[in-house]
Design goal:
Layout lengths: L7 H25 L7 H37 L13 H8 L16 H9 L5 H5 L3 H10 L12 H10 L2 H10 L6
Length: 185
């Protein structure tokens, strides 16, 4: 190709074709892009729902704090575990609780079933006295040893209930369990 014989029209045509191609490419590219929908209305609704949920969460937290305070005050009114041995009376327990009670049956505690009782047995906790002397953190450790399905349980009151059973406070245990049935009817 001889560069000296190339006319200025060649350059004009070349630049024109490039310019037209750029404009067409821009418009074709823009026409293929999807329109972005206006989500501002949905965003506003979600922000309102989020604010409501935060408010509900704060209300629940305050309710839980109040319940814990009441429970701690209740626990303070229970006498310390007696040092003298307790003599289990099955008839007295049955009369107060309305069901047959076996001594040191951990399932008597609201929230403990056969499988959780087995977990406590694995940790050497087999009596009401031993459970009453177990910290809530240790109870949670026992639950955690059973896997994910036991995480829904709340062992906060278990030592207190075990203490009432160990000391033979059947009426007090009955009243507490009736008040805190956890949705069981």
């Amino acid at each position: 190709m001889d560069w000296e014989n190339i006319t200025p029209w060649y350059w004009v045509i070349l630049v024109g074709v490039g310019f037209i191609s750029a404009i067409l490419g821009y418009f074709f590219g823009k026409s293929n892009s999807p329109e972005s929908p206006d989500n501002s209305a949905q965003l506003s609704i979600l922000e309102i729902e989020n604010a409501k949920l935060k408010s509900d969460l704060e209300t629940c937290r305050k309710s839980v704090d109040t319940s814990i305070t009441k429970q701690l005050n209740f626990e303070k009114n229970i006498a310390p575990i007696k040092s003298e041995p307790f003599h289990f009376n099955a008839q007295e327990a049955k009369a107060m609780l309305g069901k047959t009670v076996k001594e040191n049956d951990l399932k008597l505690v609201e929230g403990i079933g056969p499988k959780i009782e087995g977990l406590f047995y694995n940790f050497g906790i087999k009596t009401w006295k031993e459970l009453a002397e177990t910290s809530v953190d240790k109870c949670q450790e026992v639950l955690d040893s059973g896997g994910k399905r036991y995480r829904i349980h709340d062992p906060a009151s278990w030592p207190m209930q075990a203490k009432m059973a160990y000391e033979g406070h059947w009426q007090q245990l009955f009243e507490w369990q009736e008040k805190h049935r956890a949705g069981k009817y």
